Sequence to fold (670 residues):
Amino acid sequence: MTTPPGQDQPPVTTDSGIPVVPVYTAADVAGGPRALEERLGLPGQPPFTRGPYASMYRGQLWTMRQFAGFGSPEETNARFRFLLGQGQTALSVAFDLPTQLGYDSGHDMARGEVGRVGVAIDTADDMAELFTGLPLDKLSVNFTINATAPVILATFLVAAERQGVRPAQLTGTLQNDVLKEFLARKAYVFPPGPSMRLTADVVEYASDVLPRFNPISVTGYHAREAGCTAVQELGLTMASAVAYCEELTGRGLAFDLFAPRLSFHFATTLDLFEEVAKLRAARRLWHRIATERFGASDPASARLRFFSGNSGTTMTAQQPLNNVIRSAIQCLGAVLGGAQSIHVMGYDEAFELPSEEAVTLSLRTQQIIALETGVTRTADPLAGSFFVEHLTDEIEARAGDVLREIEDIGGAVSALQQGVPQRWITEAAYRAEQRLASGEAPKVGVNVHVTGGDSRDVELFEPDPGIEERQIERTRRHLAARDGSACSQALRRLEQDTADGRNVMPALVGAARAGATVGEMSDVFRCAFGEFREPLPW
Amino acid sequence: MRRPRLVLAKPGLDGHDRGIKVIAMALRDAGAEVIYLGLRVTPSQIAAATVAEDADAVGISVLSGAHLPIAEQVLAALRAAGASTPLAVGGTIPPRDAEALRSLGVAEVFPVGTALPDAVGGMLRLARPQAA
Fold:
């Protein structure tokens, strides 16, 4: 084979550092066409490189799931109705930080944070209010909740019960990936060991009573947003997935019992081909782990399904309308990578929660890609591209190396306790910022083509300053009205089950039903487990 | 002359620490001594560390939108501790809030989009006004 023209150019790499040559040929695809076919399979067939389903988007479009939540349950309910009215096909709930960390709105630590980055939920009543008029037997709901995931799931089950919807009818996803909180997102509460127990309690409970619901979404997105590369994102996600599966199989649960309901969550950023290759590699790598390591016999156990969120860190405060273009490219990457559901970032999210106008445009971005571009007509349209197949192989191999590195230091939980992947992430973030400052990494409107247009061009969401007081008052009324002794009894059962090592979910549902608050239920775990404090990075 | 001493912290409940860690690393590379207090530190913990470390400036980062009430509390805690140390606030701060922060008494505001060298230079100037 002769050297293709142009290969004497200076070295260029993908965002994660994989060398890229000017031209790819068949020689760059390892093992030739027969070996490639084996690595790919057909869409819907092992090893699922080409997608989890045979017909992909011809059978069913991805779920358009804009992440939303702010203020009170009523305000968020109104945003949900607005989004559904605009053609969104499912819901995704953002919770405020007090809810994520298990504080009621009146807690001292909650001051200034109530209803700010998401909706405030203190009780099952609040959760029921959030879904007023939204049929939970028909709508799939995603919950971005982790440290307090079991508590929030309990309030959701009670809200569904009040609509007359049985657990077996519920569809949706609970993020419930606590490891990535320690890794990157940092909304942890309890130490890693008990946190893993709570995560596994939810998955175990769901395998029994929530057959259509995804009880966990193993997430690389936040590590990526915190600074790591696409390769590290995939390796770290798989390390977490392995840790959860070991925790669950260690309890005696059969892998095939829970694995078909595991879901995943990846970022899609701007390096289009690398991102598509990463998503394809993710499916193949998970198939290998599920079959070789955990002995999956049900093909669905080895079939990776994922949600993709656009990257917030690619959004700029400068010339914010440029973010519309960035979002469209990232959404396209997720589609070409075979996503099952997608969130598109609002162009104004460098500053604030998205305005109604921005969130509508995000949804329109998804709809235009789905309906006008024709990219949905065939599954995995980039398969067989010399470049994309080469990148898919490279990312799979390199992410496998990251996974091995984590396992060599004792697995995901131990690595986090040692602070190793956190250091990788911080160092990668620093390098990225230095490249931006030096101009080595071009960013339009930031370090190149910087003329004109700043934030004053866009109208921002205005948060409601009265929400905190109103929510505190609402919870105060709830506490006065509930049956205090039934509630104490339910909380005592939760304490007992927590202490005895029983699955906490039945007692949590009982407590939520009896009117216990998110803070009270979380305090049971705080007392039993203590709180985690991150080791400082230096 | 001793190196500039800076206390950095994330008050409130927000866990987005990418920015403050990057700034801490850049400040160290620029010769400053950085005392990073970590996540979910209370205003009084920040004030106590500022006094105990004899810091020249304090930097906090808030990406949850709660920057106004939090900055107010940190300023009050610093005053209560008898510290006149200048406070810088960074994060997802919409333009409408930058002026409000300054009028509360915040010495520097680094909204999203601030270039790394500008944030580092700004912190060092706060720490060493005479050298600016």
